[in-house]
Structure formats: C-alpha cells, structure tokens
Amino acid sequence: MINNLGHKISSLTTIMFFAGLMAATGCSFFYKPIEQAKHYALQQQYDAAVDELSDLIDSGAPEEEKAQAFMLRGKAYTSLKEYRYAYRDLQVAWKLSCHIYQNSPATQPSDIDTQKEPATENATQEAAPAQFSPALACIEQLPQLIDALKPFTSEFGAIMATQEASAIVKQMFPEIPR
Q1: What's the half-sphere exposure (Cβ side, CA atoms, 13 Å) at 94?
Q2: Nearest-angstrom CA–CA distance, 86 and 149
Q3: Rounded to two decimals, what is the model's pTM?
Q4: Which of 7, 38, 77, 99 has its CA 20 to 30 A from that of 16?
Q5: Is residue 69 within 8 Å of 35, Cβ to Cβ?
Q6: Cα first-last separation, the chain
Q7: Using CA atoms, how far apart are residues 53 and 59, in angstroms rounded to an integer?
Q8: pLDDT in tens, 92-132
Q9: CA 90, CA 72: separation in Å to the nearest integer?
C-alpha cells in the first residue's frame, strides 16, 4: 500500500514538473529553434526571438540554418529599432546566403521563381512556412531588407556594421572568400 502510494506521488510529481516546464518554456520542446524564433516574432517577443536565434548561431548548426538565423535576427533587431545590429546581421546573412548559393550545385537560378512565397488574397490567412532559399535570400530578400535600413542608419553606422559583419564572417566562416 505504501509503495503504491509512493509510486503515485512520484508519477504525479513528474507530470506536474513536465506540465510546469512546458508552460514556462512556451512548449519550445515541440519547435525547432527557427520555428520557435518565428513564433516569438509573431507574438512580438523580439528579445526572445533574438535570444533563440543567437543560441542557434552560436551552435554547430549547418551554414544554411545559420544564414536564415542571421536574417531572422536582423529582422527582429529591426523591430527592436536596433538598426546597427540589424544591418550587421543582414550583411552576414547576405554574404553567407550568397556563398551557399554560389557554391551549391543543387540550386539553379530558375529555382528562385518556384521558391517565392505565393501571394494570398486574404492577408489575415496564415500562410504555410516558406522554405528558406539561399538563392532567393541572396538575390532578392536580403538586398531589399538592407536597403530598407539605410534611412535609419548613418553612413558611419553602416560602415561600422559592415566591418563588424566582415569580422563575424571571417571568424565563423573562414572558408568564405573576402
């Protein structure tokens, strides 16, 4: 009887622990870091998105995932009005995406049109998450995002951010030519 009661208490404690952990982490066990960061951004929790993406960037993730993480972190920094950090991260994402695109035999220029997100008539309808494309990021998305930051960044700030981006690329991705 006592042993059975002890087992029930132990099971109940375990269940409560995991329920509390799930509530505290926002169910992040079910999301990959990129998806979790996107979720945070949708909830306008940009600081949490930056933290999640920073952890991914500092991990041993593949280059393509890091390129996407730098792009998303740049967008989060833009929402936080941290334009110099946004400019820096978007520059890193651009250099890395272009490197991947130029050195990947699997991606052809004709693939870019098929990887664009389809336009929907109803803006409130949530679209399926688009697959990250280094080609599309290199040629279209990142140059537009960087250009959109120029009014918010001084010439000196842009130069400093570009130098920081070059240092990050040199340190994290030494195989990328300058």
Answers
A1: 20
A2: 8
A3: 0.73
A4: 38
A5: no
A6: 72
A7: 10
A8: 999 999 999 999 876 454 444 444 444 433 433 444 456 89
A9: 8
